[in-house]
Amino acid sequence: QVQLVESGGGLVQAGGSLRLSCLAFGRIFSINAMRWYRQAPGKQRDLVATITDDGSTNYADSVKGRFTISRDNAKNTMYLQMNNLKPEDTAVYYCNADVRLYSYSTYARNYWGQGTQVTVSS
Question: Are strands 57-59 and 77-82 parallel, antiparallel or unpaired?
């Protein structure tokens, strides 16, 4: 079994910064792509940023230039550095990952974390 655990959320004023972390643990052979999603109250869950196993990144237009996704493969951990936060960034942020469980199979199962709340006050 694999679990993803987010941390680092909280309350911050507009213009401030937060760093989210996502730790994956359990029966893991390797992790392919990892992603951050967010969901504001009453809205759909949106993709914020993606990082592949070789470090390639992609961002939603709304966070480009402000957020940076990174990962430490040795620690099975992903990060999201969020700078110049805006009230519209307020949401629950979820970690998502494609995890290979076995060395003999290329199949990767998708997992979600439980989410961490980020609140940006104006």
Answer: unpaired
CA distance 115 to 76: 17
Tokens linked to 73: 């493969």
Amino acid 41: pLDDT: 92
User: How far is it, in rounded angstroms, from Cα 1 to Cα 36?
Assistant: 21
Beta bridge partners of 71: 78
* CA separation for the pair 25, 75 (Å, rounded): 9
d(CA 50, CA 90): 19
Q: Which residues of the chain have pLDDT under 50?
A: none
Question: What token pair was written down for 30?
Answer: 């390797």
For residue 73, the 8-state DSSP code is: G
Q: How many residues does the chain have?
A: 122
Q: So what's the pLDDT on residue 12? A: 98
